[in-house]
Amino acid sequence: MIQRLNATESIHSDRRDWHNLRSMLPYLWEFRGRALLALGCLVVAKLANVGVPIVLKDIVDAFEDSQTQMLVLPVSLLAAYGALKLSSSLFNELRDVIFARVRYRAMRRLSTRVLDHLHKLSLRYHLERQSGAVSRDLERGTRSVSTIMNYLVFSVIPVMVEFTLVALVLLSKYALVFTLVTFGTVAVYVAFTFAITEWRMDYRRRMNVLDSRANTQAFDSLLNYETVKYFGNERMELDRYDGTLSEWEEYAVKSQSSMSLLNFGQGSIIALGVTGIMFFAANGVVQGTMSIGDLVLVNALMLQLFIPLGFLGIVYRQIKYALADMDLVFKLLEREPEIEDAPGAPALKLSRGAVRFERVGFHYQPEREILRDVDFAIEPGEKVAVVGHSGAGKSTLARLLFRSYDVTAGRILIDGQDIRGVTQDSLRAGIGIVPQDTVLFNDSIRYNLAYGRREATFQELQKAAELAHISGFIEGLPDGWDTVVGERGLKLSGGEKQRVAIARAILKRPRIMVFDEATSSLDSHTEQAIQQTLVEVAEHHTTLVIAHRLSTIVDADRILVMDAGRVVEQGSHTRLLADGGVYAAMWELQQREGDEVARMA
Questions:
Q1: CA nearest 133: which of 244, 79, 210, 64?
Q2: Tell me: the pLDDT tens digits for 229-277?
Q3: What's the rounded Cα separation, in Å, for the pair 393 and 376?
Q4: Three-class SS state of 495
Q5: For residue 152, what is the DSSP state?
Q6: Sheet holding 417-418, edge to edge
Q7: I need a surface site. Which of 191, 328, 405, 407 has the fewest CB within 10 A?
Q8: β-strands 512-516, 409-414 pairing
Q9: Topology of 17-334 in CATH?
Q10: Residue extents of the structural domains in the chain
């Protein structure tokens, strides 16, 4: 049963390998002329290479024929010998130069396509992925394309061409036994190499898995540097990382040991083959059917053939490893984005900015419903706030409006258009979001703020910074606008990052604004200043505010209170307090907590 499963897996793997090789062809098509020219140079180089021992035979025979006479220097043959050696080297180098553009352009195209595809994949994929593992897999995968092209053009095809030329020489000039021994040796060598390499591939796959796991652990550990320090868990992180590397070490040792076995077997097969050829050639010289030059020619051909054949085992292994690495990338490219534009979808016609959630239901997993029959509208220019306890489904509303996910029931309309029927680009261009957790690029403040609208002038950047009350902070920095914020913005405080995010959203100038806990990281003084900014911004936008602190949304035109995925109350701040329901209870609790904090201070 196990053998049957392994055979099935092997067939599936072979099919995947051929599929991946075919998938690589479009990346070669752009420079097909260069590729063909490189192959032409390869053939000329190999013709010159095989011609070298033939001329060498003639040189030896010329000396042998002139032994009984005066010794004559075969100048023309020596010149031909030198010209062939030079031609072989020249055309090999020309092949490398011509093919370099093909090889590196293919790497560039694939890398760009992978990044583009990653951006198209849904938020669900990016929340579930492990950044370290994806980074390492993509690095190996894109590099594998270069590896395969390199080995195919510089190793496999040259050996095949040389085999063909040697076969023609042996069949046309010598007894059939030389061809049979030569290619019998090659057949045994190839079969042995393939069999042992397939057996060793499991070690390589396990090494790759463990290598990605170790990289993920190291990446996560450094990404959460402060958390590790807070809890003094440096030793735990090192032990976890070292434990994975310990497993990797075991498989690496097994891989190396089995490679030594493979190398010895390959060397033995080649040694036996060459010995057999030399025996028949020496016997031919003794019997007078072959000259000393023929002996030299056969020996030179065998050495010329078996030297690259010795590397063919390494090449085969590397190609198999590269195909395994490439498979990770092409499987990723075959992964369908969860959210896609409908065929022929038009751009969103955004005029008034009216938003409507119409009996919306949503779940991440069928057994865990997040939203149930949510129904409300936001009129153009209106500011609607959503409040509720953690897990009530507040932030999910923003993700559905931005179409990071599609609703599982009902629909969401903007100016009467179902957002599933318009292009994602046009939808997202009309919505500005300030998220609860702001992540910045490891670049300058100028770059991060200008990310909201790349064509914005510096004066517009300054205006947005002033509205977000961050211009004074920026100008007070030693490098000002060119200050680098660090990875994920770690050099800035939570409040500073949040203000950059608010300025960025203002700069985008969208018709619809969403603030998801936008002031959660701000101190009371800055929050009050920002609140005035948000009021100013909301005057000209349709605004959805998701809030935890109720004091930040008392000015909202309407407040929706959510509980367990449903809207249980809605109305103005004053009306909801008067109703004495869930909102009033939340307000009273937060006021009491605020009083306790003030007393402790």
A1: 210
A2: 877 888 888 998 999 999 999 988 988 888 888 888 888 888 888 888 8
A3: 14
A4: helix
A5: I
A6: 368-378, 355-365, 409-414, 417-418
A7: 191
A8: unpaired
A9: ABC transporter transmembrane region fold (1.20.1560)
A10: 17-334, 355-600
